[in-house]
Amino acid sequence: MTKEEFKTFWTLTYPDTIPISYLFKKDYSERWFRIHSLPDSKRYAESENEWKILLERQNQIITDIFGENEKILLVTGEYNWDENATFNADEEAVFKPYDFILLDNIDLFDFKSEDYNKGDFYKPAFAETIWNSNQHDRLLKEIANDNLRAFFISINKSIIVAPYDGGIDFVFKNIQTKDFYKKQYENWLSERVDGL
């Protein structure tokens, strides 16, 4: 996939947002839900057993939704206050297996002037890869430890899978698919009314 093809795909599939995962729950709330990675909504793993539970949960639900050997995109990026700075995936060793393609800078002030200042930019990048269970565990652990941000997209199924430090956010193609998986994994949902 080229940079231009990604831009076309994103514009057609997710026109109401930009590729920054914390925005998805608000911009696609009707197609969004969240699971927690640990029992009792514990945020961070503190033992080998908790890491085992976290990775088992995350791999189980992502594999259930994507399937094995699914072609996916890995999307990441970084905030930068210098428009001319470049995204450097090599700074994160966990990104070494992925071949990133840089996307155009996003002017955050133009996107949401009430939240950002002039000169605030986001530098996104994406890589094509394959989803197989446990293949991306190192990346999932880094995200779970809040060391970096990244999310996955199945182009074929129009599903976003956005792990974070505490769980995973999902944005599905439609409400029916969301409701199906939400019911399947109801034991992993938050007890909060807002689903967070």
UniProtKB/TrEMBL annotation:
**Which domain of life does the UniProt lineage start with?**
Bacteria
Ranges of residues in domain DUF3885? 21-192
- What Pfam families does the database record attribute to this sequence? DUF3885
Check the record and name the InterPro entries matching this protein.
DUF3885
Q: What is this protein called?
A: DUF3885 domain-containing protein
Organism of derivation: Flavobacterium granuli
